[in-house]
Task: structure prediction
Amino acid sequence: KARLACRPFSYFVYRFRKVYIEGGVIAKKVFGLQDKASGLCLSKEFGSMSVKLCNEKSKDQKLQLGNIDRETGKCCSGIRSYGGNDCLDYFDGRGPHWYSCDVTGQNGNQQYRITPERRIKRGSDECLYVDAKSKKVKKARCSELATGQGVFEEVSVF
Result:
């Protein structure tokens, strides 16, 4: 080790902290998101996000914050699947889709923030909500959501 000038892993975490820490690769907190109105939890499906009954053991319901916030240079401007490299990205008729995280925060599609009101805000004025009848994640202007609609609670936090 000495001859090769090897350094401990912690050196590399610190050296590349902009990616590992500020980019959210290493989770500060892991959580599930439960829609307060329906009681259903956001869940990762192949390619897109769905809602299912909450299950604290389900890896598909574990999330973390990720990607550098372009305004602050700190974490976080997106929502990342825990233990992987997928972040919420573009939105179409099937709902929000997963795509490889851009830890630099430059991908505008990956700008999802959890507001102080516990809503998931995408871009400037779109919020996610759960349509309980269709069991799908949909979006609407934040100002058009009814009181209590599109409000998410962190569950199974560690």
In short: The longest strand covers residues 75-81. The mean pLDDT is 94. DSSP finds two helices and twelve strands in the chain.
